[in-house]
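Suppose a colleague, Dr. K., hands you the sequence of a protein chain of 149 amino acids and asks what its three-dimensional shape might be. Before reaching for any lab equipment, you can write down a predicted structure in C-alpha cell form. Begin with the sequence itself:
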Amino acid sequence: MRHPSNHLLGALLALAIGAAPAGAQGDSTGARGGLFTYRDAILAGSVLLGARLVHPLDDHYASRLQDSSTQANAKLQTLATFVRTTAAPGAFIIGGTLFTTGRLAGNRKLARLGLHGVESLIVGEITASALKGIVGRQRPHVRPRDPNS
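The predicted structure, expressed as C-alpha cells, is then:
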C-alpha cells in the first residue's frame, strides 16, 4: 500500500507542472487602440498646415514653369520627360521587377512589396479616373491657370 504522503507529493507536483506557463505564443488578437490615434491627427494637421503654407510658392512656380522661355529650355524638357517616364510606366516596371526578384530569390517580403506596390498603383489610377469622371475635373495641362477647368 502506498503512503498518503506520496499522494500529496504527486498532487503538489501535478499542480506545479500544470501551473507553469505553456510557452506558447502570446495573444496577437488582443484589443488594440483604434485605427487612428491622436498622433495620426497631429500628422494630418501638420501636412494640411504645410500644404497651406506652401500654396503661394506653388502658384509662383507654376506660373514660372509655364513661361515660354522656361518651356523652351531643352534641359528642363529632358528632365520632365525622364520624370514622366519614370513615374508612369517606370513604377509598374519597378514593382514587377521587385515581385519577380522576390519570387526567384525566395524572398517573400520583397515579392509582397512589389505585388502590393503595383496593386496600389492600379487602385490609385482607377480611383483617380472614376473621381475625374464623376466630378468632371480636367487635368491641369488642359487649362493650367484656370482652377475651374
